[in-house]
């Protein structure tokens, strides 16, 4: 086997979660940036506000994430100049998908999850793969801890779960505070078992009154 | 003024060393509806007169936000102005993307001036028929520039372009030395006054003027029509209280200033 010397990516680890409610959306990501078995920093934000009611969280290669965020921010500014309004969350979702597929043959190494409110004020979450395949879901998780978190969300958020086919509801019937508590619980659990998840979790909640942010401490080991 | 022999091509000089097509383009600016700009050390205000093609149509947009820290007001061919605004917006976005910082105003006006100059030296192009008042804030402070179809640009404390702009200029010439120390609200008031000078008797209402401001701690934005109307009303009340004698000297000034030629 020849030694591959052209591997230009790096996985910085981390986990992102998003849950859509009837009139809110919770997006959360841990703040640890790692490489291999080392931690680069305990205080790195993987969440980016793209528009008034639209927030993106991604895990994967943070260098590509920074570039992707800048790209989308610039495209959003152009949209605002042309249309005199902010982009809606579903519009941003399509833009993100197109931007990712544009680099189909040299992808952004990012695993994205987009959360916000749609034009009716209902919560929406979109989940992506690295090359732009996306789907609107009631909740999602990406990153190194996703495998630990998704089964718990399937169990706890019953109605939007794809395990009940067809999904009974597009969004969870939980209250905003219950969803935030659930997010804190799943992160605490994922931190126990996933070495790349920990330090702090940054939780962003979008609802009709705006966007608010909170930080919760996690285990640092 | 109208020499037909050397004015067919923009790339033809006249024996007197003039490019008539460029001068004709600047004439287009003079025919457009008025726009004024005023600057203090911390704020820049732009104000324009909104001309509507007819009572049935909407007003033309003459003030454009270019970035959070820059805006422009145009006079002349508004279609050219729209296209140039798109160019300016792109330049700002690209600069922000690469340097993660706002494009300095002086750099932007140079790029705009260079773009205008290209059109004065290509036989298959025509000069842009629009003058732009560029108002912006950057690290070096508040700035107001005027970009000409000729590719020239100048920095101003205050300036007016478009039809009957000489009246506004005369008004501002008397006051500009104090502008640097003006508060934000005084600057807005004087901008509206300057616009009123260009109306020459027509009733000033908030529906026919657009006012925009950019300043320290204040990104570029249009000022709400209600606030403009309040300023106009407060001014009108003061004037009704003062004697009609105030009106007479103002009119004499305008008559003499109309006669003086506008040099570039």
Automatic annotation (TrEMBL), chain A:
Entry's Gene Ontology cellular component terms: cytoplasm; nucleus; proteasome core complex
Q: Which domain of life is it from?
A: Eukaryota
Q: Which residues form a coiled coil?
A: none
**Which keywords accompany this UniProt record?**
Cytoplasm, Nucleus, Proteasome
One GO biological process this protein is involved in is: proteolysis involved in protein catabolic process
Gene3D superfamilies in alphabetical order: Glutamine Phosphoribosylpyrophosphate, subunit 1, domain 1
Keyword Nucleus in record: yes
Subcellular location, record wording: Cytoplasm; Nucleus
Membership in a protein family: Belongs to the peptidase T1B family.
Q: State the oligomer form and interacting partners.
A: Component of the proteasome complex.
Q: What does this protein do?
A: Non-catalytic component of the proteasome, a multicatalytic proteinase complex which is characterized by its ability to cleave peptides with Arg, Phe, Tyr, Leu, and Glu adjacent to the leaving group at neutral or slightly basic pH. The proteasome has an ATP-dependent proteolytic activity. Component of the proteasome, a multicatalytic proteinase complex which is characterized by its ability to cleave peptides with Arg, Phe, Tyr, Leu, and Glu adjacent to the leaving group at neutral or slightly basic pH. The proteasome has an ATP-dependent proteolytic activity.
The name this protein goes by in its record: Proteasome subunit beta
Species of the source: Ensete ventricosum (Abyssinian banana)
TrEMBL record, chain B:
Name its GO BP terms in alphabetical order. Answer: ubiquitin-dependent protein catabolic process
Does the record bear Transport in its keywords?
no
What positions does the domain Proteasome alpha-type subunits occupy? 6-28
Give the subcellular location: Cytoplasm; Nucleus
Cellular component per GO, a single term? nucleus
Query: What is the designated name of this protein?
Result: Proteasome subunit alpha type
Which parts of this chain are annotated as the region Disordered?
242-264
Quote the subunit structure annotation.
The 26S proteasome consists of a 20S proteasome core and two 19S regulatory subunits. The 20S proteasome core is composed of 28 subunits that are arranged in four stacked rings, resulting in a barrel-shaped structure. The two end rings are each formed by seven alpha subunits, and the two central rings are each formed by seven beta subunits. The catalytic chamber with the active sites is on the inside of the barrel.
Q: Which PANTHER family match?
A: PROTEASOME SUBUNIT ALPHA/BETA
The function of this protein is:
The proteasome is a multicatalytic proteinase complex which is characterized by its ability to cleave peptides with Arg, Phe, Tyr, Leu, and Glu adjacent to the leaving group at neutral or slightly basic pH. The proteasome has an ATP-dependent proteolytic activity.
Organism source for this protein?
Ensete ventricosum
One Pfam family name is Proteasome_A_N
Question: Which CDD domains is this protein grouped with?
Answer: proteasome_alpha_type_1 (cd03749)
PROSITE patterns found in the cross-reference section: PROTEASOME_ALPHA_1 (PS00388), PROTEASOME_ALPHA_2 (PS51475)
Q: Does the keyword Cell inner membrane apply?
A: no
């Amino acid at each position: 086997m020849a030694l591959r010397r052209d591997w230009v990516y790096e996985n910085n680890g981390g986990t992102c979660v998003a849950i859509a409610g009837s009139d809110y959306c919770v997006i959360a990501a841990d703040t640890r940036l790692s490489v291999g078995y080392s931690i680069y920093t305990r205080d790195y934000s993987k969440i980016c506000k793209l528009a008034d009611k639209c927030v993106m969280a991604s895990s994967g290669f943070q260098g590509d994430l920074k570039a992707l965020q800048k790209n989308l921010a610039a495209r959003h500014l152009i949209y605002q100049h042309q249309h005199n309004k902010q982009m809606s969350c579903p519009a941003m979702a399509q833009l993100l998908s197109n931007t990712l597929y544009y680099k189909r043959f040299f992808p952004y190494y990012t695993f994205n999850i987009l959360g916000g409110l749609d034009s009716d004020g209902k919560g929406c979450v979109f989940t992506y793969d690295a090359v732009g395949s996306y789907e609107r879901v009631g909740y999602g998780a990406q990153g190194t801890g996703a495998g630990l978190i998704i089964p718990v969300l399937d169990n706890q958020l019953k109605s939007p779960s794809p395990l009940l086919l067809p999904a009974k509801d597009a969004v969870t019937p939980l209250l905003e505070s219950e969803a935030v508590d659930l997010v804190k619980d799943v992160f605490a659990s994922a931190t126990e078992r996933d070495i790349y998840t920990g330090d702090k979790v940054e939780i962003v909640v979008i609802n009709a009154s705006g966007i608010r942010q909170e930080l919760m401490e996690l285990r640092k080991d | 003024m109208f020499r037909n022999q050397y004015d067919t091509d923009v790339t033809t000089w006249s024996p007197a060393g003039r490019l008539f097509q460029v001068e004709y383009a600047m004439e287009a600016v003079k025919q457009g509806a008025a726009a004024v700009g005023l600057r203090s050390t911390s704020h820049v205000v732009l104000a324009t007169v909104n001309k509507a093609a007819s009572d049935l149509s909407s007003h033309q947009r003459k003030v454009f936000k270019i970035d959070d820290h820059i805006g422009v007001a145009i006079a002349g061919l508004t279609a050219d102005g729209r296209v140039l605004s798109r160019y300016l917006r792109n330049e700002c976005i690209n600069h922000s993307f690469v340097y993660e910082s706002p494009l300095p105003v002086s750099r932007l006006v140079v790029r705009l001036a260079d773009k205008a100059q290209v059109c004065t030296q290509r036989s298959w192009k025509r000069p842009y028929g629009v003058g732009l008042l560029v108002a912006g804030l950057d690290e070096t402070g508040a700035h107001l520039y005027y970009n000409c179809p000729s590719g020239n640009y100048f920095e101003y404390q205050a300036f007016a372009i478009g039809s009957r702009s000489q009246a506004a200029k005369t008004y501002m010439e008397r006051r500009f030395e104090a502008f640097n120390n003006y508060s934000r609200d005084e600057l807005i008031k004087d901008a509206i006054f300057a616009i009123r000078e260009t109306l020459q008797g027509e009733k000033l209402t908030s529906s026919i003027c657009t006012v925009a401001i950019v300043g320290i701690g204040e990104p570029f934005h249009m000022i709400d029509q209600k606030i403009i109307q309040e300023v106009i009303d407060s001014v009108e009340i003061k004037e009704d209280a003062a004697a009609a004698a105030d009106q007479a000297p103002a009119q004499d000034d305008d008559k003499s200033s109309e006669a003086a030629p506008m040099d570039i």
